[in-house]
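README: folding subset

This subset contains proteins for which both the sequence and a predicted structure token string are available. Records are stored as plain text. Below is the entry for T-cell surface glycoprotein CD3 epsilon chain (152 residues), shown exactly as it appears on disk.
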Amino acid sequence: EKEFLVEISGTTVTITCPISEETIDWELNGEKSKNNTTYVKESHDSSPVNVSCSFGGTKREMYLNARVCANCEELDALAVTGIITADLLITFGVLILVYYFSKDRKGRASAGAGSRPRGQKMQRPPPVPNPDYEPIRKGQREVYAGLESRGF
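--- output ---
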């Protein structure tokens, strides 16, 4: 069994009836008209429509809920594929450029606001001596004389 063929372009809706006769009775939401196998409705307002076409005792019905717009552009699959591919190539190109330009800066010191100027290396002052761990000086061996090694 054949089906309705619906074509939408801008705000024009073209409906082809599955009954193949020369003169067909069309009915769209109560409006009746006689036409050939195709019915063209110009300036469709995207409202749902009950469509029927009949010839003799044969009647076919359809509920049409087509969204149309005046300023829409139709794109084929090749154009959409081309747009997506170009977008991906540009994105990867920018990513590679950022990688290579940032790669050169890794070894350099940043001159940001929080960095201090790097001149000569400053030496640390000697640590404060701890009296418990003073080094043995010449002539003071008797302090440590009681710490003799024990034989096991």
